[in-house]
Design a protein that fits this description.
Layout lengths: L22 H7 L2 H7 L3 E3 L9 E2 H18 L3 H11 L4 H11 L8 H4 L3 H8 L7 H10 L5 H15 L4 H12 L8 H4 L14 H17 L15 H18 L16 H15 L15 H6 L5 H12 L5 E5 L6 H16 L3 E6 L2 H18 L7 E4 L7 H8 L53 E5 H6 L7 H8 L2 E5 L7 H16 L4 E5 L4 H15 L17 E7 L5 E7 L7 E7 L11 H22 L4 E6 L3 H15 L4 E4 L5 H14 L11 E6 L13 E5 L3 H8 L18 E5 L1 E4 L2 E5 L1 H7 L1 H10 L6 E4 L3 H8 L12 H23 L28 H8 L7 E7 L6 E2 L17 H5 L2 E3 L5 H4 L18 E5 L4 E4 L2 E6 L3 E6 L7
Parallel strand pairs: 3-8, 4-6, 4-7, 5-6, 7-8, 11-16, 12-14, 12-15, 13-14, 15-16, 20-23
Antiparallel strand pairs: 1-2, 3-9, 9-10, 11-19, 17-18, 20-21, 20-22, 24-25, 25-26
Helix pairs in contact: 3-5, 3-12, 3-13, 3-14, 4-5, 5-13, 9-10, 10-13, 13-21, 16-17, 22-23, 22-31, 24-25, 28-29, 29-31
Keywords: Antiviral defense, ATP-binding, Helicase, Hydrolase, Metal-binding, Nuclease, Nucleotide-binding
Pfam families: Cas3-like_C_2, Cas3_C, Cas3_HD
Family: In the central section; belongs to the CRISPR-associated helicase Cas3 family.
Length: about 1000
């Protein structure tokens, strides 16, 4: 049966406001029971629609009206153009998009949904529609996942095919309907379960009703028939994924009962009425897009944005951005302190203007580096258009402790006094709307930006986003609602800093993300000071394979012709791969950095505890002596250790020698609030604009937190041995700014490398912590690259050559006596890398061999990853690090009450008053991995279970001295050292 009889004229079933439904004309098109069914089918029950039943047709039109708002006020020009192309002409993309969003719930016109609410089910039965309840119950029990989303996929597939759509168009569209609750089933999945055959999908008269729902909705949004809706082209999978995310976005907004109250009278249902509700909701939620229309910046723009003329490398990046023939990948390689961030932002503005992007995502390696970048991006966005500065999202788990974010949040206008209400309550075992108790979804935090973007899984949909690179990597995972993340990235320019910091495991997700971004025609800018040639090759291969919609693409990436450099690539409209590579001189002359070795005795694995403790004390005394000598006339020093325990132990030695006022400690096992304060203090004390007092000394002992994207300027560096690219990053914190005044003896930059012991006629012995983190292979190769005593590295001139040598797969770099050990270490590393890469693939969004499939059907193959919250997602993309976070609280005794770390009282069960909430949240700290098993039994305090911010947070209760036991380990916390662990038998801190 055709959905629309061609002999019947176009009919506006739902009239404009003020005019009643022409029931006579409606009756001419449909049998009486169909008209009655349209007036009875419910989309949301009375309980979930503001006290009045919401008809299904009303919800479909509400969603369509929201989609109109999304198109007009949110979608990037690039997305609009892509949809016009798919739909078959300028202007058709809008109507097609609105139609696609609206039909998402067509599966609710089935017994699978209508039976779930007794009152609504009875009204539907009175129209003559029926089902065998016992069979439906049996089918639902056996196949509980078969609900209205899957039913809708099946209904859409059948009716579109019946209307004459090409099979290829049907095949890509039905999964978007079936997957609008967050996961894409296969065609096999959506088949109605055997025990309920026909009783959940609907038999007999149900087919006519389903045809009528789709037909009348289609006409209302502007198409003459269902056949007329058919697109002209099949969109890429990336565009399908983006569209799916936008469908979910429109559905979630249209499901908010605050703005979309129930409509139970068919005569009151109209697209015009839905438009009024959608407009009011859009305004009340403060929804907004980004630039909307952005002109290509002229030569003067850099000066306007950053207050200075561009350096040669920055001008080069802008020039290359102007030359790309299509959206593509740019890799900017330049020294530390060269101004890569400004170069990338300037290039992003050009790319956005040229290719129709509406915002940016800037990804950083850590939360600590994201915070200062948030400030820089806000200032840059403000220079383009001042009002946009309030639309910048900071996206990481500890943003509540960023003072600028808090100020922006608290200064925003007050919003609605209740959280988002959009959950479909019938038959759901999961949380399809993603609103499950996310702290950002309620309370005052919504003030910082449109409240809607602050909900879980939605942060990337904000127009301008600064966050950890993890946020991008999450978009490459096979997890529920991944389409929302990809919808947020599409339509933006993506900028990733310190891209070399992604290890073998994380790189699998980065490459997967680049494939999808390439296919989505998203311009991407990657930044690095120390990028290995092999890593550069794989990044381009991934992006270009995606852009070409190929499983793999065999390309030869040209080596940069110099340093600093920009390498760019894109796929031309004719399908050809194009490269552009350019280099220039650095804005400043090479810095001759003297590199010296400070040997450290490394006891063997069988050494006694006493011997290990003596060796450690000697090593720390040696560092203390060195600092006392070098800082005799004052100055600043940065000391980077490869583990928290080594940093804490050295800090204790230096504090005793120099006093607490001259030594600072910074690592990742301070509470989040304390760490934020210490990071801010470190950046201030060692920043380029802080006056240095003659004779004053300052020593910062830190872990890898100070390795990159950490704008400090030290006079000298002492560092544990690390892979050469990371070692060079650390060197980038020394003599970073030429304007800094330094003591005479420190005017030559010096670096002292420790953490290993050279040995005659064989390879050096390596500190246990360093070898565990980085592996023997790269540490041995780096040790072989260290210059002879007192010689210098020329930075940045030597950087590309040093990195390339370190990452070559041969042992010729090593002294002959080291080569047997080097060969063994290389083979061990290769085996480990293969295993880690293979482990990562179980979480990747696309399985190997499926990247050229034309549709999203079955994308969530083999069951989804269990990762859903921030901690589990982070573990998924960071090599399964199962360390957990806990909130530290104090309790003086069995009968005493709980207190915060600062001593403020909590309720008897740990209940948290609003005025002490920040204290509790600020006390969160990540435990070291070796405590994960012992900490597994930790739970929230009894009073936290009902709290939206704390009910998922485990508490670690310390006694009045700040100590407790976890298994055989004593755990303590104090403001000087942070979290420390020690075996209860009295062993040294781990």
């Amino acid at each position: 049966m055709s959905v629309v009889a061609p002999t019947i004229p176009s009919l506006r079933v739902i009239p404009s406001p003020g005019g009643p439904v022409d029931t006579q004309e409606l009756g001419q098109r449909h049998e009486p029971f169909v008209v009655e069914a349209l007036a009875a089918l419910w989309g949301k029950s009375r309980e979930r629609a503001g006290g009045t039943t919401s008809l299904l047709m009303a919800h479909l039109l509400d969603t369509a009206a929201v989609a109109e708002m999304v198109w007009e006020h949110y979608l990037a020009r690039s997305t609009q153009a892509a949809l016009d192309e798919v739909a078959g002409g300028t202007g058709r993309g809008r109507t097609f998009f609105v139609w696609l969003c609206g039909i998402h719930d067509c599966g609710k016109a089935t017994p699978a949904h209508q039976r779930l609410w007794a009152e609504g089910a009875e009204a539907v039965r009175r129209t003559g529609l029926s089902w065998l309840e016992t069979a439906a119950v049996a089918g639902a029990k056996k196949h509980g996942r078969w609900r209205h989303d899957w039913a809708g996929g099946l209904v859409a597939r059948e009716l579109l095919a019946a209307s004459g759509w090409d099979a290829r168009q049907v095949d890509w569209l039905w999964p978007l309907v079936a997957g609008h609750h967050g996961a894409f089933p296969s065609l096999r999945d959506v088949q109605e379960p055997g025990p309920a055959k026909g009783q959940l999908r609907g038999r007999g008269k149900w087919r006519q009703v389903q045809e009528a729902v789709l037909d009348e909705f289609t006409r209302e949004v502007g198409f003459a028939s269902l056949h007329e809706v058919e697109p002209a082209q099949v969109p890429t999978r990336a565009l399908q994924l983006q569209l799916s995310g936008l469908v979910v976005m429109a559905d979630w907004i249209a499901s908010d009962e605050r703005y979309f109250v129930g409509v139970d009278d068919l005569a009151s249902v109209s697209l015009d009425a839905s438009r009024k509700r959608a407009g009011a909701a859009w305004e009340a939620l403060g929804m907004q897009g980004g630039w909307r229309s952005l002109g290509v910046p002229g030569p003067e723009a850099f000066q306007d944005r950053f207050g200075c003329a561009p350096r040669p490398s920055q001008a080069m990046a802008i020039d290359v951005a102007r030359q790309l023939g299509a959206p593509g990948l740019m890799v900017i390689e330049a020294p530390m302190g060269e101004g890569k961030t400004e170069a990338a932002l300037a290039a992003a503005e050009v790319l956005a203007a040229r290719f129709g992007a509406d915002g940016v995502f800037v990804g950083m390696p850590t939360q600590a580096t994201s915070d200062p970048m948030f400030t820089r991006v806000r200032r840059w966005v403000e220079t383009i258009e001042s009002r946009l500065a309030l639309r910048v999202m900071l996206l990481h788990g500890k943003r509540a402790f960023n003072q600028e974010w808090k100020a922006m949040r608290d200064g925003a206008q007050a919003q609605a006094d209740q959280p988002f209400r959009g959950v479909d309550e019938f038959g759901l075992d999961d949380d399809p709307y993603g609103v499950e108790a996310d702290p950002a979804c309620s309370g005052s935090e919504r003030q910082a930006l449109s409240e809607w973007f602050l909900g879980p899984k939605r942060g990337l949909l904000a127009p301008f986003v600064v966050g950890t690179v993890d946020q991008l990597l999450y978009a490459a995972t096979r997890t529920r609602h991944v389409m929302l993340r990809m919808a947020g990235l599409a339509g933006k320019v993506v900028v990733l800093d310190e891209v070399h910091a992604c290890d073998v495991y994380m790189s699998q997700f980065l490459q997967e993300a680049l494939r999808w971004l390439g296919q989505a025609r998203v311009p991407v800018v990657l930044l690095s000071a120390t990028l290995a040639p092999a890593q550069r090759q794989t990044l381009f291969e991934a992006y270009l394979a995606g852009a070409a919609s190929r499983e793999e693409l065999d390309v030869k990436v040209p080596a940069p012709p110099g340093y600093p450099s920009v390498t760019a690539a894109w796929i031309s409209p004719a399908g050809e791969t194009r490269f552009h590579s350019q280099a220039t001189d650095s804005w400043r002359a090479d810095l001759e950095v003297v590199v010296r070795t400070v040997p450290e005795a490394v006891p063997g694995a069988g050494a006694s505890r006493a011997k290990r403790e003596r060796a450690q004390a000697q090593a720390e005394a040696s560092v203390g002596d060195l600092l006392a000598s070098e800082l005799a006339d004052g100055g600043t020093a940065l000391v980077i250790r490869n583990s928290v325990a080594r940093a804490q132990s050295l800090y204790a030695e230096l504090r005793g020698r120099f006093g607490p006022h001259e030594v600072r400690l910074l690592h990742a096992r301070f509470t989040v609030a304390h760490r934020a304060e210490l990071t801010e203090e470190s950046l201030r004390l060692l920043g380029p604009h802080t006056p240095r007092q003659p004779g004053a000394r300052l020593i910062l002992v830190a872990t890898q937190l100070a390795e990159q994207s950490f704008d400090v300027d030290a006079d000298l560096l002492i560092t544990d041995l690390a892979p050469v690219d990371l070692l060079l990053q650390r060197i980038g914190r020394v003599h970073r700014h030429q304007t800094t005044r330094r003591p005479h003896r420190l005017r030559t930059p010096q670096v002292f490398v420790t953490g290993f012991q050279p040995r005659a006629s064989r390879e050096p012995s390596l500190a246990y912590a360093s070898e565990k983190i980085y592996g023997r292979h790269l540490l041995l190769r780096t040790a072989a690259l260290l210059p002879k005593e007192g010689a210098a590295w020329s930075v940045p001139g030597d950087v590309p050559h040093l990195v390339a040598q370190a990452y070559e797969n041969d042992t010729s770099l090593l002294p002959e006596a080291w080569r047997p050990a080097g060969t063994t270490a290389m083979r061990e590393q290769e085996t480990q890398n293969r295993a880690r890469a293979e482990h990562a693939r179980q979480f990747l969004l696309t399985a190997r061999g499926e990247r050229e499939l034309p549709t999203l059907a079955g994308l969530h193959y083999g069951g989804m990853s269990a990762a859903s919250d921030e901690n589990s997602l982070r573990a998924a993309v960071r090599d399964g690090d199962e360390s957990i976070e806990v909130a530290l609280v104090l309790k003086d005794g069995p009968d005493a009450g709980y207190r915060t770390l600062s001593g403020r009282p909590l309720g008897a069960n740990g209940d948290v008053a609003l005025e002490v909430l920040d204290d509790v949240l600020g006390s969160v700290v990540r435990l070291p991995p070796h405590l994960t098993q012992a900490a597994a039994a930790l739970k929230p305090l009894p009073g936290w279970y009902g709290h939206p911010w704390l009910r998922g947070t485990a508490a670690l209760v310390l006694d009045s001295s700040g100590r407790t036991a976890l298994g055989d380990v004593e755990v303590s916390y104090d403001v000087e050292f942070g979290l420390r662990t020690m075996r209860r038998a009295g062993a040294a801190a781990r």
